[in-house]
Amino acid sequence: MLSYEAMVRTIARYVEAFDRDDPGMAAALYAENATVEDPLGAPLIRGREAIREFYKMAMQAGVRLKLEGAVRGAGDSAAFPFVVVFNDAGQKRIEVIDTFRFNEAGEILEMRAFWGPANMHGFKSPA
Amino acid sequence: MLSYEAMVRTIARYVEAFDRDDPGMAAALYAENATVEDPLGAPLIRGREAIREFYKMAMQAGVRLKLEGAVRGAGDSAAFPFVVVFNDAGQKRIEVIDTFRFNEAGEILEMRAFWGPANMHGFKSPA
Questions:
Q1: The model's pTM
Q2: pLDDT tens across B52-85, in order?
Q3: Would B4 disulfide with which of A15, A19, B55, B73, CB 3.0-4.6 Å?
């Protein structure tokens, strides 16, 4: 069973990948056949290469992740609360909880992101 | 689709059920055929009556839930960070993230609790 400490290290590297604007670093944390559902209900993104493209798009806005509390580790999974902060000198931010399920090699097999319109703050409303 | 505000209200009533030590109030938030997995990897608890028994046991310790950040709402689901505080004049607490999936009637269909040994603080270690 993957240790809590190993899950926390992977989540720290995930945050660091955003600090470095490095989609390849984020994608490398995933298993080859991993899936990403971000946010819940969106079409599944499948496979490390598609996941790299997803992070390339996401990182174009220069966002940073700020952890908001302890990583919760349960069995082969972890959940953690954070805020996505946009690098636009403004107040744009999105409150998110991600859940990661890991394989025995410590790679992320499944990522699910919980956030929605009510968690988006400082965005202009559509005209 | 269930509104974010309706999910937040249900989570507030969930916290209130612990404040009142009322397992029936907690169980009434669930659908008749709901499942609870607490923590992740534990055997599923199925059905509202078994869920009431589960909360009856859980509430015998006089625990209270303290929310630690915004409820994240995504589609038919929500996730929220909180701390379970034990009513023992001590420092015992457990950091948890719960995810709730709702049906169209606004009842909880599926609850999953993310926490593990690394999230338990102030407990005596086994001798």
A1: 0.95
A2: 999 999 999 889 999 999 999 999 999 999 999 9
A3: B73
Nearest alpha-carbon partner for A40 in A119, A104, A105 = A119
Cis bond before residue A39 (omega within 30° of 0): yes
Of A30, A38, A55, A98, the catalytic one is: A38
A8 pLDDT more than 60 = yes
CA-CA distance, B85 to B91, in Å (whole number)?
Answer: 8
Cis? peptide before A117, omega within 30° of 0:
no
Mean pLDDT of A107-126: 92
Best CA proximity match to A55, nearest among A28, A90, A85, A32: A28
Does A10 score more than 60 pLDDT?
Answer: yes
Closest chain B C-alpha to A25 CA, distance in angstroms:
26
Contact A26, A45 (CB under 8 A): no
Residues of B annotated as part of the active site:
14, 38
Average pLDDT over residues A55-77: 95
Closest CA to A116 of B6, B12, B15, B38: B6
Paired tokens of B34: 């709901």
